[in-house]
Design a protein that fits this description.
The structure is a single chain. By secondary structure, the chain is mostly helical. The chain folds into two domains: 112 residues, no CATH class; 49 residues, no CATH class. The protein is built from eight helices and no strands.
Length: 165
């Protein structure tokens, strides 16, 4: 249902996501900025643009007209309950799942994953972006489903703790 109302092309998302895993935080990464300007908004608009198509915007426009003028849904409700949540979720996904994990740290990236994980507790990690803030783990184990990333992270932290002691 959400797929129909948001007009998301899941095949495009999946293909781009695997391209991202092949060349993370590089110019060949569809989620990454141009390497010159990594400001939040310029990076977000590039990210948003790379996952949007003209046909998607055409279908969204047609959907708005259909619901507003055929079904009779008040335009304010379409904005408040459809547009605002869609844009807010895109910003949330980008910020917690792309921008923070892949923003180049001071001193540069340290491994091929070119990502870092946040240190949020499990519940807060879930609320921010379905644990995609545990991004190093996501890149290291891309086939692990999002709900198992906290246990992968915990295992990694335990191993690091043993190694450092």
């Amino acid at each position: 249902m959400c797929h129909c109302l948001c007009y998301v092309r899941l095949k495009l998302l999946l293909e781009s996501h695997w391209k991202h895993h092949l060349k993370p935080a590089s110019l060949k990464d569809p989620d990454y900025h141009d390497g010159e300007n990594d400001s939040f908004w310029s990076w977000f608009f590039k990210f948003f643009y790379s996952y949007s198509t003209f046909s998607q915007f055409s279908r969204i426009t047609a959907g708005i007209f259909f619901f507003a003028f055929v079904v009779g849904v008040p335009f304010e409700n379409l904005i408040l309950f459809w547009a605002v949540p869609a844009v807010a979720s895109a910003i949330q996904l980008f910020y917690f799942g792309t921008y923070l994990p892949h923003k180049e740290p001071e001193g540069g990236h340290v491994d091929a994953n070119r990502s870092v994980s946040n240190n949020l507790p499990t519940l807060l990690s879930f609320l921010t972006c379905y644990h995609f803030g545990y991004h190093w783990e996501h890149h290291q184990y891309p086939y692990v489903p999002w709900w198992k990333l906290p246990s992968v992270r915990q295992d990694r932290l335990q191993k690091l703790s043993k190694k450092n002691n």
